[in-house]
Amino acid sequence: MLAVIPYITYKIVRPQLKEIDNVKIATAGLNDLGPISSKEKGLIVVFISALSGWIFSHYLGLNESSVAVIAMAGALLTNVICWNDVLQNKGGWNTLIWYGGIIGLSATLSKEGFFKWLAAFMSEHLDFLGAGNTTIVIIVFLSIVVRYLFASGGAYVAAMVPVFATVGLVTGTAPALLALAILFSNSYGGCITHYGGAAGPIIFAAGYNDIKSWWLTGTIIALLTFLLHMVVGIPWWGFLIQHGIL
What residue intervals traverse the membrane (predicted)? Predict the structure, then answer.
């Protein structure tokens, strides 16, 4: 599926430029930049410091957000960037509003018990007893649909994966097969929206896509991957489990 996703995307959202001279563009860009400046050297120092802070945050007694704030403050205080640069970074503000706002909404829903209610509702009303592998098909499809409510894969895994796993196991579905199905659906379920994963808002903020094209392309790719997952993946994993390979 990974091999055909670029082609599918190309057909759905056709690019305006289809042929470019990368060498010419790169050469011209490097010439325009000139030699590395003192600010760029400072940025390298800030970047390495921030990266080290994230790696050793546990030993430093800092969380990842604190390291990011310190790195940003350091870049401003050393004049690596100025406040006008921050204000003019439309992509950054766009990411903050979309990702921060959606995460805030997701956190509020979680705090108010919405996801617990949804989990209880599904456990009580989705009776798949004796349905066999049909259970997996329905659970994976539902796992894709509910991704519209989640702003990150982590929030989805924490709130819904235990629910889907419990509902699936009571039907007698093979645990390994169920676990693989839920695991893989998480990877392509997050592409249906521009806030479904951590990288989504950042890529969306670049301005190359609008919401309609992203959601349309993401939904088509997710559904095609779902069909391939169910038609090829489930039987293949079942074969491996049956023969003791998996």
Answer: 42-60, 67-84, 96-114, 126-150, 156-184, 214-240
Q: pLDDT tens across 75-115, in order?
A: 888 888 888 887 777 666 766 666 666 666 667 777 777 76
Q: Are 179 and 165 in contact (CB under 8 A)?
A: yes
Q: Please determine, for residue 119, whether its predicted confidence score (pLDDT) is greater than 70.
A: no
Determine how many CB atoms are found less than 10 A away from the CB of residue 226: 20
215 and 192 Cβ atoms separated by less than 8 Å: yes
- Tell me the one-letter amino acid at 124: E
Beta-carbon contacts of 210 under 8 Å, excluding residues fewer than 6 positions away, are: none
Q: Chain-centre distance of CA 76, in angstroms?
A: 30
Domain boundaries, the chain: 89-243
Q: What's the pTM?
A: 0.63
**Could you count the other beta carbons within 10 Å of the beta carbon of residue 68?**
14
Q: Give CA separation, 94 vs 39, 55, 142, 190, 201, in Å.
A: 25, 27, 29, 19, 8
User: What burial class does residue 202 get, using C-beta atoms within 10 Å of its C-beta: 0-12 exposed, 13-18 middle, 19+ buried?
Assistant: middle
* pLDDT tens digit sequence for 206-240: 778 888 888 988 899 989 999 998 899 888 888 88
The single-letter DSSP state of residue 96 is I
* Residue 237, helix vs strand vs coil: helix
